[in-house]
Design brief:
By secondary structure, the protein is of the alpha+beta class. The protein has helices at 36-46, 55-60, 97-111, 122-131, 151-156, 163-175, 189-203, 212-223, 264-268, 271-285, 300-307, and strands at 68-72, 75-80, 87-93, 116-120, 136-139, 146-150, 180-183, 230-237, 240-251, 254-262, 290-292, 313-315, 318-322. The strands form two sheets. A seven-stranded mixed beta sheet has the order 7-8-9-10-11-6-12, with helices on both faces. The protein has a six-stranded mixed beta sheet with strand order 1-2-3-4-13-5, sandwiched between helices. Helix 7 (189-203) runs antiparallel to helix 8 (212-223).
Length: 324
């Protein structure tokens, strides 16, 4: 039997549903850490490996996007309030998808919002087109596409395609021969935060706050490392932490890389190539085949860096809005 943490049975969370006659009420809640097991199971069963469905991201950015979640008739649904109009995540799970979309349509009407969906996969876009033909206009932005990599390729850096990355890693091992990589545990978790603090000071000047939301999310991630079922590692040089990364699993074969932070001195010596390789090696040993290193947000330098690691595929997303 599956329950939300408030003991409302997952498949009985609606009241007064009459097919064809809209009498549906979606019961929304703010995500809390106890919702993780249920959401992770639904996402794992779906096979979707988009970073927007990582429970860690849903939880850590719940305030930024004013995220609400809902269980409905076998599905998991999200609602975001940002910008001038709220937006829905497409229902994820098993059941009558048209029934779930109908429930969302009523919910949007009750909110006096124009119905729109974000982060649609190719398959979800096709489903929506089939059940609501000619109703939506679809758009996509390359900056929101996730980069998916082979963990084996990033762990081994074999072949001509990775020649430069292997050189960067060799530079790191040559200049930092005493470097040690350790997985994050309760005993060293504050060392991961020390890396973030150094990185933040190096990249923030004159009171700028561009990185404050991310910084707060990293602090909360580390404070709830076990509860969020996170995985990560730290590089030490001269016994001092200089690089760290934090990840979580979508399923047994795919992981989301949430954060990679490298201090300037370590970065100049090939530290990003090193933390990337060490994390890929660790996840590959755990049986993970695919690494999602998330989107580039349309930032040209970040796009160039992500492309340089030779993604195996791009996880494209679509937005759907009601035609005018």
């Amino acid at each position: 039997m599956i329950y939300w943490n408030n003991n409302v049975r997952f498949d009985k969370i609606i009241n007064n549903y009459t097919y064809g006659k809209v009498e549906i009420m979606l019961k929304w809640k703010t995500p809390d850490i106890n919702d993780g097991d249920l959401i992770r199971k639904i996402v794992a069963d779906s096979g979707i490996i988009g970073s927007d469905l990582s429970f860690a991201n849903i939880y850590l950015f719940r305030d930024k996007y004013k995220t609400k979640i809902c269980a409905f008739d076998g599905f998991f649904i999200r609602h975001y309030s940002f910008g001038e109009n709220g937006k829905y995540g497409f229902p994820v799970g098993n059941g009558d998808i048209e029934k779930a979309v109908l429930a969302i349509e009523q919910d949007a009407s009750e909110r006096n919002e124009s119905l729109s969906f974000v982060c649609l996969t190719e398959e979800q876009k096709e489903i929506l087109e089939n059940i609501r033909p000619e109703m939506f206009q679809f758009t996509s932005d390359d900056g929101t596409s996730d980069y998916i990599y082979s963990s084996h390729e990033l762990a081994n850096l074999s072949g001509r395609a990775f020649h430069k990355k292997k050189n960067h890693f060799h530079r790191f091992t040559r200049l930092c021969p005493d470097a040690v990589f350790k997985r994050i545990t309760d005993d060293n978790i504050e060392d991961a935060w020390a890396v973030e603090e150094i990185w933040y000071k190096e990249h923030t000047q004159n009171g700028e706050t561009d990185y404050d939301v991310e910084r707060a999310a990293i602090r909360e991630a580390l404070d709830n490392f076990s509860g969020l079922k996170l995985w990560g590692g730290i590089i030490y040089v001269d016994n001092k932490p200089c690089a760290m990364a934090v990840a979580s699993l979508f399923n047994n074969e795919a992981s989301d890389i949430h954060y990679e932070k490298v201090t300037n001195q370590c970065a100049d010596n090939g530290g990003y190539a090193a933390i990337n390789k060490f994390i890929a090696e660790g996840l590959e040993k755990d049986g993970v085949l695919w690494l999602n290193r998330e989107e580039d947000m349309g930032i040209e330098g970040l796009r160039k860096a992500k492309l340089s690691y030779r993604p195996k595929m791009m996880f494209k997303r679509y937005e759907a809005i009601i035609k005018g």
